[in-house]
Amino acid sequence: MEKKQDTNREPSEDNQYSSDSIQVLKGLEAVRKRPAMYIGSTSVRGLHHLVYEVVDNSIDEALAGYCTTIELTINADDSVTVVDDGRGIPVDMHKTEKKPGLEIAMTMLHAGGKFDKSTYKVSGGLHGVGVSVVNALSERLDVWVWRDGEEHHMAFERGDTIRQIEVLGKVDRTGTKITFKPDREIFTETRYDFETLANRLRELAYLNAGVSLSITDDRGDSPREETFLFKKGLPEFVTFLGGNRKPLHPDPISITTVKDDVEIDIAMQYSDGYSDNTFSFVNNINTHEGGTHLTGFRSALTRTINEVVKVRGSLKKENFSLTGDDVREGLTAVIHVKVKEPQFEGQTKTKLGNSEVESIVKTVVYEHLGNFMHEHPSVAKAVIEKATSAARAREAAKKARELVRKKSALESGVLPGKLADCSVSDPSITELYIVEGDSAGGSAKQGRDRGYQAILPLRGKILNVQKSRIDKILSNTEIRAMVTAIGTGVGVDDCKLEDARYHKIIIMTDADVDGAHIRTLLLTFFYAQMRPLIEAGYVYIAQPPLYRVAKGKEEYYAYNDEERDSYIERLSNGGAKGKVIIQRYKGLGEMNPEQLWKTTMDPTARTILRVEIDEAFNASQLFEKLMGDEVEPRRAFIEENARYVKNLDV
Questions:
Q1: For range 400-416, the mean pLDDT
Q2: Which residues pair with 338 in a beta bridge?
Q3: Which tens digit of pLDDT belongs to each residue from 301-319?
């Protein structure tokens, strides 16, 4: 039966939030010395992580039932202000520490109300590092607390208190306001990206129905503002993620319940697409590596659909049952569970490990989805037809898949004829360059280090897998060559990361429109069919130069127009005699092997970008927009971004 999201959060009567709720685990000294240990990096990612930590504190107040509005402002000087209408950080004296709760929270690592389960039954803060780390890595941090009818203020510089807690006056509101400016001594970049922050707030608004999150950018001539408020929550999230796919049933299927102290919120909808877009969260944390909650959902989904098929007799004449891939074809789903004591594992600590959650989710989904299918026969019919059609296509693809496996290096040693393999067999060392065209492939083969660099040239543009089923995908010659060379297999169930023959797969295409299109097609393929490679950090994009600027025996390679102009000026004002020669590389094939090695393939000099899926649903949306069936969203995207295009070759 379809459940409705309860958007009314009533505070628990037994929640007494005071300074004594804050338990101290000590120590802040190492944060500035080794910041990457606490926020991942000191680059753009770590910079934005500071904001997430502050916002997560406000979200935890919303989870506890005390906050309905969160406002984020990027100030003109790239400092950030976050305001909420929660209870306000406690300001009374802590019994054992003999300091105000506010000072403890801001200056001591691992100090906060999240460790007291009577204060926060569920929180995402335990996954993070706390506002004290934000304080330690900020040039300046000011905090205002509205609590007990008074406005309190403290100020800090690089984690040290410069203004003790003081009462500024009387107020008739509650909440917390924090303004911080990231330390330029710590971060390599201190300019915030509006879209990155807006995407995170949008995600949190979908996950926390009824909570308003807004962002304002005061850095331009006129403020840029967005507000996110979704009263239904996950069903609206699924509709958003579905984008322009045509749904098979008008409204998402929604499950919202509590079992054994685990809150379960699920929304799902089938479309006429072929990909599986399932996203999972725990306590607002994006678990892009999955975990027990996702396993439980998938297991129950497969079992439920198979039982409905059995009752309806849809596969009586077939000699096979539906697999997980079959029942997930065209599915868009979001699973959000709230767990009191989440245990995370995996490389990036975004994989839920609580074994009890799997059986809880499995039981809930099996019961509620089964009832829903029974009560909505038209939806059940559409879903079953979709899944059985996928099953028949899978059977048709079986021979093609087996052919790919037979040709894999692991089983028979037969590699694609076009592959110039390397001599080293250790995958942790080897690299595979996927190169556009035979001309560039020839230069790459001659210029590479044959010991550990393999070259696979592709002819033309590969199939758009966003519009194709697996049987058609595996019949494509270029895709089969890639799959065979890499060795992992394809698909959710068949892509085995441990079988990868290379731990660096580098996409190297021309710096023009065709090259960008081929790169997008390849990324779409890896995202849809070999996503574990991206999640493991094995997929990269090469960055070949756009220009060669030379004069006499002096030469430089420029990767953008600014570098080109700088080199031209340098050579014009001195250096060797002669005319400055500017060569624009329209294709990799225009470089000789020595130039290609020097600029793009030499590990000591090259620049390669690792492809990452920190924001999986944004990536999914972009791929659907660029590679899906609907023309209008693609046209709108091109019109909106056309002004940013450079080096358009016609």
A1: 53
A2: 263
A3: 999 999 988 887 766 666 6
Residue where a domain terminates, one of 205, 228, 251: 228
Identify the pLDDT of residue 18. Answer: 74
Q: How many CB atoms lie within 10 A of CB 96?
A: 10
Quickly count: other Cβ atoms within 10 Å of residue 200's Cβ: 22
C-alpha 78, offset from chain centre: 24
Percentages (nearest 5) of helix, strand, coil residues in the chain: 40, 20, 40
* Same domain for 252 and 134: no
Known catalytic residues are: 436, 510, 512, 514
Residue 576 lies in a domain: no
The mean per-residue pLDDT over the stretch 347-355 comes to: 79
With 0-12 / 13-18 / 19 or more C-beta atoms within 10 angstroms meaning exposed / middle / buried, residue 223 is exposed
Whether residue 73 lies inside any domain: the answer is yes
- 113 and 55 inside one domain: yes
Domain's final residue, options 398, 428, 462: 398
pLDDT tier for residue 627 given thresholds of 50, 70 and 90: low
Give domain status of residue 558, yes or no: no
Judge if 34 and 125 occupy the same domain.
yes
- Rounded Cα distance, 576 and 552, in Å: 5
The CA distances from residue 530 to 16, 351, 430, 496, 535, in Å, are 49, 18, 18, 9, 9
User: Do residue 357 and residue 478 come from a single domain?
Assistant: no
State pLDDT tens for residues 507-544: 998 877 778 888 888 888 888 888 889 888 999 999 88
Clarify whether residues 342 and 282 are in a common domain. Answer: yes
First to last CA, the chain: 56
- Nearest-angstrom CA–CA distance, 96 and 100: 11
pLDDT > 90 in the chain, percent: 46
Token pair 């959000």 is found at 336
Same domain assignment for residues 158 and 253? no
Residue 552 included in any domain: no
**Per-residue pLDDT reduced to its tens digit, 14-57:** 556 777 766 554 456 778 888 888 888 888 889 999 999 999 99
User: How confident is the model over 55-76, as a mean pLDDT?
Assistant: 92
* Contact between 413 and 436 (Cβ < 8 Å): no
Q: Provide the pLDDT confidence category of residue 3 given band limits of 50, 70 and 90.
A: very low
Domain shared by 243 and 219, yes or no: no
Cα distance between residue 383 and residue 22, in whole Å: 49
Q: Please give the tally of structural domains in the chain.
A: 3
**Domain that includes residue 32, residue range:** 19-228
408, 484 contact by CB (below 8 A): yes
Q: Which of 79, 65, 196, 83 is nearest to 120 (CA)?
A: 65
Residue 391, domain CATH? 3.30.230.10
Domain at 520, CATH number: 3.40.50.670
SS3 per residue for 106-145: HHCCCEEHHHCCCCCCCCCHHHCCCHHHHHHCEEEEEEEE
Tell me how many helices (H) and strands (E) the chain has.
Answer: 21, 25
Higher pLDDT, 201 or 125: 201
Instruction: For residue 249, count CB atoms less than 10 angstroms from its CB and return exposed for 0-12, middle for 13-18, buried for 19 or more.
Output: middle
Instruction: Please indicate, yes or no, whether residues 308 and 374 belong to a single structural domain of this protein.
Output: yes
Is 396:388 a contact under the CB 8 Å cutoff?
Answer: no
At 186, which CATH number?
3.30.565.10
